[in-house]
Automatic annotation (TrEMBL):
<feature type="domain" description="Endoribonuclease L-PSP/chorismate mutase-like">
    <location>
        <begin position="25"/>
        <end position="144"/>
    </location>
</feature>
<dbReference type="InterPro" id="IPR013813">
    <property type="entry name" value="Endoribo_LPSP/chorism_mut-like"/>
</dbReference>
<dbReference type="InterPro" id="IPR035959">
    <property type="entry name" value="RutC-like_sf"/>
</dbReference>
<dbReference type="Pfam" id="PF14588">
    <property type="entry name" value="YjgF_endoribonc"/>
</dbReference>
<protein>
    <recommendedName>
        <fullName>Endoribonuclease L-PSP/chorismate mutase-like domain-containing protein</fullName>
    </recommendedName>
</protein>
Amino acid sequence: MTRDRALTDAARQLGHDFDGEIKSGGNYLPLVRDGHTIYLSGQVPRVGGTVVVTGRVGADVDLAGAQLGAKICVMRALVLLQRSLGSLDAVRQVLRMNVFVQCSETFTQHSEVADAASDLLVQILGPHGAHARTSVGVLALPKNASVELDLTVSVQA
């Protein structure tokens, strides 16, 4: 199965459509390429114009909800990559992912939230989706999103 087909299948499994515009929330670029490296701006779990997972994880949102949010963030990032590159087959390696979780003071499962995103990257990109990662808890995120993540990716010429 191609990576592009795996992306389509993953979207279907999540029950969301990522065919429309992937909106940015301000005066910045969604991705920047420097040679073989692409830096993707932070993605929140927005589908269309709606952030679908909001609130504090551990208070308003449970672990499963936060994991769904992380998967939606990954899907947005991969759709942006696919549109920029023409195909996800041009991805050599996901180098790094940073995951930010808006959470309660007592929530400590940041890594488990990030695992959902990591697993989806490997599901779609195979071993090229494996990456270095940081996951942290934060007080607030844009649009009250429960999760935000960014990626650094190595691509073919």
